[in-house]
Design brief:
ten-stranded antiparallel beta sheet, 14 strands, 332 residues, four-stranded antiparallel beta sheet, alpha+beta, 11 helices
């Protein structure tokens, strides 16, 4: 059933019927007949400890977050775009400009791309003036890993295969973890996926981590994805849900080891770069959260933001963060 539904939503001809894809905004405002018969598949989640949370630049106050659960998939939580416009821009810029740099690992093949591109992809893309070569370099970037690097061949982590985990992303993950009651969560491995419109991610489970009980945090930016969440086997029919720009999804509890996939990326978002962002910036708060102060300021400048906006016009970025070690462990 999982593969059948994946194939259905992946189809380019004929175009798939999207009426069963869950739009959380629609579910939150109005319950259509199908959702009523499914016993309200989306329910509002209240976050109880918001008063004690210290937020960070680019993030709305937790008391204003719109958080939801899927009642037929226990452990799935979706927070609808808790980011400000400047916040979204900051994380997009980090994912494009900084995270694909050495010593982080990228998917770019050494036979097809020289060291300068593999070590600083965004810089070389920005310097490229040939249209065909630009498109080749742009579309080739599909993932980068840092913290503990996932070995795609052996499917295991290695203590010797690590690069530093960014402190600003650590702060971001801990904020959401604390808000949801996962105060012991430690961000130790990240995969950033780059999806051109039309690309997919096949059904799989995330089971390589020794710690399989800690939640998995997923941050979406750019164009909209259809996300499938199924059960522990491929025989179970998955639920399809839209993940939009700025959405945060948490896979915890029962859902942590369930099959999931992205069969379709849809161009639904517009990225403006014509105006300066009018937002008060607290430099001290930026410093306390280990963020790049200059970058946080610069993304409000239309000229600086333009190449990032252009990239996101037909792409989606997903930051996927997980804890690797079991509680009390210091290494593999």
């Amino acid at each position: 059933m999982f593969k059948l539904v994946f194939k259905q939503y992946k189809s380019k001809s004929p175009s798939p019927d999207l009426t069963e894809v869950i739009n959380i905004d629609d579910c939150a405002v109005k319950r259509n007949d199908q959702q009523q018969s499914d016993n309200n598949v989306v329910q509002r989640l209240s976050i109880s400890n918001v008063e004690s949370l210290q937020t960070m630049p680019g993030i709305q106050s937790p008391k204003d977050w719109r958080s939801y659960t899927l009642t037929n998939h226990p452990g799935i939580i979706v927070i609808r775009n808790p980011f400000s416009e400047r916040g979204r821009r900051y994380w997009i810029a980090r994912c494009l400009r900084d995270y694909p740099r050495t010593p982080n690992i990228v998917n770019l093949n050494e036979r097809l791309f020289d060291e300068s591109i593999r070590s600083d992809w965004w810089k070389q893309l920005s310097l490229c003036s040939d249209g065909n070569e630009f498109q080749r370099i742009k579309s080739a970037m599909r993932w980068t890993t840092f913290g503990y690097h996932h070995n795609w061949d052996t499917k295991i982590y290695d203590e010797e295969m690590q690069s530093p985990f960014p402190e600003d992303l650590n702060s971001l993950c801990r904020l959401f973890a604390q808000a949801l009651g996962y105060s012991e969560f430690k961000p130790e491995a990240a995969i950033v996926n780059y999806y051109p419109v039309g690309s997919t991610l096949s059904g799989h489970t995330d089971h390589s981590e020794p710690n399989k009980s800690a939640p998995l945090f997923s941050f979406s930016f750019g164009q909209t994805a259809i996300f499938l969440i199924g059960g522990r086997t491929l025989e179970e029919k998955p639920t399809a849900i839209y993940l939009q720009c700025g959405d945060v999804m948490i896979m915890s509890g029962e859902s942590r080891l369930c099959y999931h996939a992205v069969p379709r990326i849809m161009k639904t978002q517009t990225f403006a770069n014509s105006s300066v962002i009018d937002e008060v910036v607290d430099d001290e708060k930026i410093r306390c959260n280990f963020m790049d102060k200059d970058l946080y300021h610069d993304v409000g400048d239309p000229k600086f933001w333009e190449p990032f906006s252009s990239y996101m016009a037909d792409s989606r970025i997903n930051i996927n963060v997980r804890q690797v070690l079991n509680p009390g462990e210091l290494k593999l």
